[in-house]
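Minutes, project check-in
Item: structure for the 143-residue chain
Input as provided by the requester:
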Amino acid sequence: MTGRYNFIDHTADIAVEVSAENFEDLFIISAKAWRDSVIDEISLTNPQEKVLEFDDDSLEELLVHFLSELNYFLLGKKWIAVSVRQIKINKIEIGWRLSAAILGVPVDEQKHKIKIEIKAVTFHQLDIKFINGEYKTRIVFDI
């Protein structure tokens, strides 16, 4: 896996620029940026796996849906996605399909300190582009 992310200044929210060689890595790196925004690094002891599968009309919608699911697991289910074990992104007849296996653990409030609560993953400035041999995008998390 290759890719990187960089947090950038944003007036009221969290913004991150992400780049990677392919769609799958772009989504994995985006998930790492989301995780690093909300919680400090945690170990993966006795991980549980969750499977995500859904379709969306565009890659941007697929990315927002994916990150929103991770955020829902944290806020709604008290389960933190620590890593993406497997991910496939395919073009389908009427859009894009994501299939992913996510590894995570239940949030233990004695061990895990939530740094910040993300209200939503937004479409603001989100546009996946292929530039100089890499896929790039900017993601803004509404806090």
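Outcome recorded: The chain has one domain: 3-142.
No further action items on this chain.
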